[in-house]
């Protein structure tokens, strides 16, 4: 019996080993495609949670405080207002629109030089260019937007607090999102008490805006991520491959491959795809592998790629002991995105 040939539009991510130069990383520091047109007007505040409208109004004022200030000041401010901090920090659960608001800041602020990236993209840039070269690259920038601010190890704490401190001292304004208030970053993940001075110094640069609410991805959707039978999985992937390029990988093999690709390169790993296929999904037993998968799903979700999968439902891949640990919020964010992506 002759094997059926795979559609020409089907690829395997495990065969890809993308490279990313410092110049490529800098060029990528713009909002994800789904937020290209994000504005404050298009942010739909949930009336049941007044903090959403409150944060939106405060951020409009933050952006309307004036064009980048002349040398010696952060930005214009109205007379009689108390001194304003150079950064805003959006703290809230997943799915309340923090990234939409962050992208709205990026688009609305009248700035000559501005950058938008995930926390991991900035730390990867330091790794690629070196600390001092990264400082020089961003020196004089008007705005740095940092999405999903996460401190998972002491090294990242030191690097980011030093970098932001130097940039704020030169007049750069900051906007960041996270699921954790800045004073609590690192708690439950490493010995945060050893880094309190650095964490508090960073927090002092931000005005924290709490945004309450429910995950908008689940407002009209309940249940698990969709897990397909083999025939349905193959039919869906063939359809995606006929119209573009889809990936098809064993879940276990892809997770192992992610260990050999720096997370900053995950965006290139999925370059040109129209869908992701994962066969025989299983539950994680290794936390490092689980966290790499979270970073991968962040990039998949940013690219708005649908996921098709077989095996264990993707919202069940993180066991209870992981969900009860210090990375709980990361895993819950990933589950939210996985459910939405399998329904896309």
Task: Give structural attributes.
four-stranded parallel sheet, single chain, 2 domains, Cell division protein ZapE, five-stranded parallel sheet, ATPase_AFG1-like, 344 residues, 40% helix, alpha/beta, ATP-binding, Rossmann fold
Plain-language structure description:
- With 344 residues, the protein is an alpha/beta fold.
- The chain has helices at 22-27, 50-63, 98-108, 119-129, 131-138, 154-169, 196-203, 230-243, 251-258, 266-269, 287-302, 320-323, 328-343; strands at 10-11, 87-92, 114-118, 143-147, 173-178, 206-211, 246-250, 275-281, 307-311.
- It folds into two domains: 10-19 and 217-343; 31-214, 3-Layer(aba) Sandwich (Rossmann fold), CATH 3.40.50.
- The protein has 13 helices and nine strands.
- It has a five-stranded parallel beta sheet, with helices on both faces.
- Helix 4 crosses helix 5, helix 6 (154-169) runs parallel beside helix 7 (196-203) and helix 11 (287-302) crosses helix 13 (328-343).
- It is globular and about 60 Å long.
- It starts with 9 loop residues before the first strand and ends with a helix.
Topology:
Layout: E1 10-11, H1 22-27, H2 50-63, E2 87-92, H3 98-108, E3 114-118, H4 119-129, H5 131-138, E4 143-147, H6 154-169, E5 173-178, H7 196-203, E6 206-211, H8 230-243, E7 246-250, H9 251-258, H10 266-269, E8 275-281, H11 287-302, E9 307-311, H12 320-323, H13 328-343
Parallel strand pairs: 1-7, 2-5, 2-6, 3-4, 4-5, 7-8, 8-9
Helix pairs in contact: 4-5, 5-6, 6-7, 11-13
């Amino acid at each position: 019996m002759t094997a059926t040939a795979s559609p020409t539009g089907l690829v395997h991510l495990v065969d890809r080993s993308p490279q990313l130069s410092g110049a490529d990383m800098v060029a990528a520091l713009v909002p994800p495609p789904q937020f290209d047109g994000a504005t404050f007007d298009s942010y739909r505040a949930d009336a049941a949670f007044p903090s959403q409208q409150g944060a939106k109004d405060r951020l409009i004022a933050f952006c309307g405080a004036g064009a980048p200030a002349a040398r010696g000041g952060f930005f214009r401010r109205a007379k009689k207002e108390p001194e304003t901090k150079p950064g805003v920090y959006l703290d809230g659960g997943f799915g309340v629109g923090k990234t939409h608001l962050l992208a709205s800041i990026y688009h609305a602020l009248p700035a000559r030089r501005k950058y938008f990236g995930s926390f991991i993209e900035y730390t990867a840039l330091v790794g690629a260019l070196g600390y001092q070269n990264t400082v020089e690259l961003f020196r004089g920038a008007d705005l740095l937007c940092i999405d999903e601010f996460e401190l998972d190890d002491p090294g990242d704490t030191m690097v980011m607090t030093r970098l932001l401190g130097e940039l704020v001292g030169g007049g750069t304004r900051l906007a960041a999102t996270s699921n954790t208030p800045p004073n609590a970053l690192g708690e439950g993940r490493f010995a945060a008490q050893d880094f309190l001075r650095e964490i508090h110094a960073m927090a002092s640069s931000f005005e924290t805006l709490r945004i309450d609410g429910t995950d908008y991805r689940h407002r009209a959707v309940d249940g698990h991520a969709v897990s397909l039978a083999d025939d349905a999985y193959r039919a869906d992937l063939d359809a995606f491959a006929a119209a573009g390029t889809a990936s098809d990988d064993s879940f276990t093999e892809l997770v192992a491959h992610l260990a050999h690709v720096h997370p900053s390169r995950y965006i290139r790993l999925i370059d040109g795809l129209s869908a992701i296929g994962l066969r025989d999904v299983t539950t994680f037993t290794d936390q490092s592998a689980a966290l790499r998968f979270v970073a991968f799903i962040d990039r998949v979700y940013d690219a708005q790629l649908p996921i098709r999968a077989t095996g264990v439902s993707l919202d069940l891949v993180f066991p209870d002991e992981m969900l009860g640990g210090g990375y709980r919020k990361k895993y819950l964010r990933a589950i939210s995105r996985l459910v939405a992506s399998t329904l896309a």
